[in-house]
Amino acid sequence: MPIPEAVPAAPAAAIDAYPDSYDAPVRRRLDRRTLAIGGIGLGVYLLTLLATVPARIVAPLPGATGTIWHGAAPLDGGSRAEWRWSPLASLTGLGFAADVAVTGPGTALAARALLRPGRVLIEDAKGSAGLGLLAAIARPGFACDLHMQVDLARVAIGGGKQGADGRIRSEPGSCNAFGGPAVPVPAMTFDVRQTPGLAVINLAPAGERRRPFIVGGLEEKGMLRLIVTAEGAATLPFLSPPGGMKIETEL
Asked: What's the pLDDT score for residue 48?
């Protein structure tokens, strides 16, 4: 039986002439391992960085605490807003989505918010609110002692297709222009109904929609037009001079 011939070893001169041909596979394995470890380290660093992005990025308010994923901020009038990031809604809405809760004196309000550059969308805003919350958001030239029930399906401000749909009911109370006497106000209903291209606005005594204090509309492009009626000016003198007035502004 013939004995197989041994494969001759490569001469030392050949090894010295082409050193990379022998350690290249080992070197490639080491390179892949180094890249993998570096990628994991970079990922951990980025996740840590994102997890600690301060809350003021979402809510540029004095006293905002926490992170953009779960934070809180005080509002004027003693209220407090708290939000928690909603990853699924962010993915489907192509923006930063969060569940929002506002609490404070006479206020217990919950909603979903979606933020995009130059646009804010509020959905399913429900609960109770005091006029202090309105003052914190809109800063009107008057103060009120009223209690409201909020049921807003949608409010979209900024960008395309602005509008709103829902209702706010207020109980009897009082209001006054800053420095002026208190004026009693009746129970009222604020209705906003979305129609193609226009959100129709109506503020009237509760149960008397056809006796409006304020009527108007918000166009999709952001033009807001309001009319304070003569009756509205008489009942709510802190809103308008006698006889009523027209307001036009762009949001």
From this structure: 40
At residue 125, the 3 state secondary structure works out as strand
The secondary structure of residue 8, as a DSSP letter, is: P
221 within 8 A of 238, measured Cβ to Cβ:
no
Integer Cα distance of 228 and 212 in angstroms: 8
The label of the residue with tokens 């805003």 reads: 125
Residue type, 10: A
Which one has a higher pLDDT value, 40 or 83? 83
Token output for 239:
């809103």
Find the mean pLDDT for residues 211-237. Answer: 94
Q: Looking at residue 136, what is its pLDDT? A: 62
**Cα separation of 194 and 196, whole Å?**
7
In the prediction, which pLDDT does 11 show? Answer: 53
User: Which candidate, 218, 173, 209, places its Cα nearest to that of 191?
Assistant: 209
CA dist., res. 14 & res. 65, Å (int)? 68
Nearest to 75 by CA among 51, 52, 109, 113: 109
Edge-to-edge strands, sheet with 173-177: 142-145, 173-177, 183-185
Q: What is the pTM of this model?
A: 0.74
Which H, E and C letters describe 150-206, residue by residue?
EEEEEEEECCCCCEEEEEEEECCEEEEECCCCCEEECCEEEEEEEECCEEEEEEEEC
The pair of three-digit structure tokens given for residue 53, joined into one six-digit string: 């992005």
